[in-house]
Amino acid sequence: MTLQAMGSKRRLLGGLLSCRCLRAQHEGWGAASVLDFSHCSLDAVPRDVFSCERSLLELYLDANQIEELPRELFSCQALRKLSVPDNDLSSLPPAIAGLSNLRELDISKNGIQEFPENIRCCKCLSVLEASVNPISKLPEGFTQLLNLTQLYLNDAFLEALPGNFGRLAKLQILELRENHLKTLPKSMQKLSQLERLDLGGNEMLDMPEVIEELSSLRELWLDGNGLQKLPGCIGRLKQLTYLDVSKNNLEEVEPGICGCQELSDLLLSSNILQQLPLNLDVYFSNR
């Protein structure tokens, strides 16, 4: 393909294409596996995308002004990654169920208020980024996404998680910062592979008891809540290396924290602590 023809193709699509699309230009659009239309000032998904429904594996539509995802998009059944952050979406269509091979979905920084119940049909989904959306609750079908390993729901309107949230037993990273959570469901004790849990900026007055059952946890954020005490049961987290409980109302840190044998970073600033456990200084000085 000549440079002149390639330039015409870019103009046809309404914006400069990323170099990730050069493969598509050489092969012909019908055989494209990766398309990147990020930062192209688009207000709709380009029609050319739908001619690749059999071959398309990754589609990037980041930072445009797209208001809805057309039904034709969900006929791209080979699609493994769909990235549409920082757009103007107000909903995620039920037709998302058609993307049965989807492994990564990024819908962050939109205006989406809820997940459709049949999100459960995206059985292969492993990574879901939905932060900065006004999502107030998760449907029961959400807990059927049994292959999720990473879930990001920061800066939403969540007040509670589904009671059977613990079904997501493959989760390794769970970020729920800046929500309205007051506690966690007991079923989360089943999250035996969870390594990072971010609960900063919520409304917890007590550390949820279920946290002490998360035996693989390495990083824990509880900053910006209303905690008055850091209970000794935190010492059951033998793998924990990072703990942030700053910006709370902590008056006490119980001695049991010294059970965190791998702890190397402990953030306690902006609390109302009068003293620390006597053995805490000795504990860290011997690290």
* Spatial gap, N to C terminus: 62 Å
- Rg is 23 Å
Quantity of strands, as a count:
13
- Percent helix, as a range, is under 10%
Any idea of the CATH class of the domain at 86-285?
Answer: Alpha Beta
Q: What labels would you give this structure?
A:
single chain; 287 residues; mainly beta; Leucine-rich repeat, LRR (right-handed beta-alpha superhelix); two-stranded parallel sheet; 13 strands; 13% strand
Give a quick summary of the entry:
By secondary structure, the chain is mostly beta strands. The protein has helices spanning 3-12, 22-27, 278-285; strands spanning 34-36, 58-60, 81-83, 104-106, 127-129, 150-152, 173-175, 196-198, 219-221, 229-230, 242-244, 252-253, 265-267. The chain has a domain at 86-285: Ribonuclease Inhibitor (Leucine-rich repeat, LRR (right-handed beta-alpha superhelix), Alpha-Beta Horseshoe).
Descriptive overview:
- With 287 residues, the chain is mainly beta.
- The protein has three helices and 13 strands.
- Strands 1-2-3-4-5-6-7-8-9-11-13 form an eleven-stranded parallel sheet, with no helix packed on it.
- It is elongated and about 70 Å long.
Question: What's the topology here?
Answer:
Elements: H1 3-12, H2 22-27, E1 34-36, E2 58-60, E3 81-83, E4 104-106, E5 127-129, E6 150-152, E7 173-175, E8 196-198, E9 219-221, E10 229-230, E11 242-244, E12 252-253, E13 265-267, H3 278-285
Parallel strand pairs: 1-2, 2-3, 3-4, 4-5, 5-6, 6-7, 7-8, 8-9, 9-11, 10-12, 11-13
